[in-house]
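Changelog-adjacent note: as of this version, every example in the card shows the full chain rather than a window. The one below runs 144 residues end to end.
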Amino acid sequence: MADPTPLQELEPSPIDSPSDVEKASYFPPSSPPPPHILPHASTASLGLGKHGAVFYLRNIQRYSSYAFTLFLSLHVANTALLPLATRSVSAAEPYLLLTRPYYQSLALEPLLVAAPLALHVAAGVALRLHRRARLAQRYGADTP
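Full-length structure tokens:
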């Protein structure tokens, strides 16, 4: 394939007028910093402060998984590791009965399993819908 514009070798030459180079600075003159940009109107109207909804939804999703992980670790320690350490279920029964009220109580189990799971899923769905709406707005999706 032939190149339409062949390369030419040029000899280096000195600058004709060095005064022009010295006058123009490499860096543009400094301008005052831009005024503080306020958060989006929707964020300010929700009373979320300087963070947007995405920040809070991500944190809800992140920290809700910690509560479920805590419950899971207590449950695995109680039902798998204690019988393994004592080498029999009958020998582990006193330990099983000792720890069971802490993670299987009427109030603690829904707080460690159901509520974090519901929050995690709801925050994930809300994040997905928010991202979809933002991408549709950015790239111009067809609106009915």
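Structural remarks: The longest helix spans residues 53-86.
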